[in-house]
Amino acid sequence: MKTITTTKALAEFCDACATQPYVTVDTEFLRERTYYSKLCLVQMAYPGEGEENAVIIDPLAEGIDLTPMYDLFEAPDVVKVFHAARQDLEIFFVEQGIIPKPFFDTQIAAMVCGFGEQAGYETLVRQIAKGSVDKSSRFTDWSRRPLSDKQKHYALADVTHLRVIYEYLAAQLDKTGRKAWLEEEIGVLMNPATYRVEPEDAWKRLKTRNNSRKFLAVVRELARFREETAQSRNIPRNRIFKDDALMELAATRPHSFDDLNKSRLLLREARKGAIAEGILAAVKRGETTAPEDMPEPPAARVKKNGTESLADLLRVLLKAKAEKFGVAQKLIATAADLDALANSDDRESRVLKGWRREVFGEDALRLREGKIALSATPRGVKLIDL
């Protein structure tokens, strides 16, 4: 079990990786007290068995330079293999402006290959690698040193079993001809915009039942202020104020410190000083937004008459298609995708593009247009042309 703490040792290991067809990668990080993740460990392995050819890289070691690792991440002949990679990739993009490529995500590949909605790492280890993962160190503070052997073994397990899983899934994708499906899916993870949180768009991640454009304008300004403050202070956005408090503020629209003190959900620290002033200013900006500049509610939130029944039918169709093609439902379409398709004529929906259109989108359109009906049979759902 090797732990790398020097730039020289890291360069030697990365040179060895550069001669291999792939390398598996995972990270351990902390984010509970910061806006941006703090990288605490990087685990890597190239083809071998057990902990052979696997290392732990300590980015907190004094004097270590991670440049050799980032150079490897850009090596065109070595596939970088991760599981559920979004947060890992975000760390590397924020730290160095790099997204590893070529890239393979075993969680996405597993859903494409029919391993269901919850293609968790432990499940894949058990079903594909015929192994097990000791998760007793899951809640470790990875910033503390020294690490115990038990913690190190736990960390390495996230890349050693991944070799077997990757080789199996890669072979399955070749066998089924679905490699292009995976490449289409990971395109989102390869896009730098995925990891840039623009404060003016922060409101879009919030769930609200109120579709009033004026209400949404206040929500947008409050979310913008919170995001800018969290980023500048490098603290979690919920340390400024939580989502439920944001919705309360958008509904009550406080205009003074006295109004803020009437809030049931606002943190005490947010009722005074710069945060309180920022809240009041954000509410004012939202209230005075010109009508033409107010945000539109997402299509999925705008319910038209009769569309709820159509959305239910689309869910039945989705389940049938997922079973037929052996692919996870949520990979084909989310509930929001179905609601939007039922409520809107938008032909730019992701379910109407690429492999999704072939698997689901074409028949979804035919169902929406009344050209087909669904019939329940002992063998499953049957499509009937009308």
Helices and strands in order:
Layout lengths: L1 E3 L2 H11 L4 E9 L7 E8 L8 E4 L9 H7 L5 E4 L3 H11 L6 E3 H7 L8 H9 L19 H28 L2 H12 L22 H21 L9 H10 L4 H4 L12 H15 L19 H19 L3 H4 L2 H9 L10 H15 L3 E6 L2 E6 L1
Parallel strand pairs: 1-4, 2-5, 5-6
Antiparallel strand pairs: 2-3, 3-4, 7-8
State the secondary-structure class: alpha/beta
- Write down the CATH class of the largest domain: Alpha Beta
Helix content: 40-55%
Shape: flat
Order of the strands making up the biggest sheet: 1-4-3-2-5-6
- How many domains make up the coordinates? 3
CATH topology of the largest domain: Nucleotidyltransferase, domain 5
CA radius of gyration: 24 Å
Stretches with pLDDT under 50, minimum 5 residues: none
Structure, described:
- The protein has 386 residues and is of the alpha/beta class.
- It folds into three domains: 194 residues, Ribonuclease H-like superfamily/Ribonuclease H (Nucleotidyltransferase, domain 5, 2-Layer Sandwich), CATH 3.30.420; 95 residues, DNA polymerase, domain 1, CATH 1.10.150; 83 residues, DNA polymerase, domain 1.
- It is 47% helix and 11% strand.
- Strand 2 and strand 3 form a beta hairpin.
- It starts with a strand and ends with a strand.
- The model has no long low-confidence stretch (mean pLDDT 93).
Write out key terms for the chains shown:
two-stranded antiparallel ribbon; DNA polymerase, domain 1; 3 domains; flat; alpha/beta; 386 residues; Nucleotidyltransferase, domain 5
